[in-house]
């Protein structure tokens, strides 16, 4: 095949495939799994703070509450842990939502009041997840 004809054939066949590869993939929602290790004797106060304040403030700042659990006590965590999942449209949205949440004067007042007798949490772990194509889909919120 002549070089010019080969280049034309390659461009004709490859261009649609290259264009598809170059198009940005739509962002998948990001789920954040968070694990809170309560300070000794503080799990009930931590649950009360989430129940009475935190969930509403998360929603105010665009965070979608998916589910919350208390881990059963273990040797490593005798009081258990608070485990929850939030959903975000993207990692960028997650970062912006957490920044706005952390700066919210209402949240700062809640923390100050709830931690007057000492910190409620000693450690937080966070894991970022995207849903697999074979996962059952969550029901739409509201």
Automatic annotation (TrEMBL):
SUPFAM superfamilies to which the protein is assigned, alphabetical: Dimeric alpha+beta barrel
Domain NIPSNAP: 31-136
Signal peptide annotation: 1-19
Segments forming a coiled coil: none
Pfam families associated with the record: NIPSNAP
Key words of the record: Signal
InterPro entries: Dimeric_a/b-barrel (IPR011008), NIPSNAP (IPR012577)
Entry protein name: NIPSNAP family protein
């Amino acid at each position: 095949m002549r070089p010019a004809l080969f280049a034309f054939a390659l461009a004709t066949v490859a261009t649609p495939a290259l264009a598809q590869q170059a198009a940005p993939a739509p962002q998948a929602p990001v789920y954040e799994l968070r694990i809170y290790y309560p300070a000794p004797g503080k799990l009930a106060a931590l649950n009360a703070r989430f129940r009475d304040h935190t969930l509403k403030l998360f929603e105010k700042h665009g965070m979608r509450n998916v589910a919350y659990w208390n881990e059963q006590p273990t040797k490593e965590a005798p009081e258990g842990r608070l485990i929850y999942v939030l959903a975000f449209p993207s990692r960028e949205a997650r970062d912006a939502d957490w920044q706005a949440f952390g700066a919210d004067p209402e949240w700062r007042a809640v923390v100050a009041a709830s931690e007057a007798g000492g910190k409620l949490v000693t450690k937080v772990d966070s894991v970022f997840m995207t849903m697999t194509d074979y996962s059952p889909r969550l029901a739409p919120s509201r």
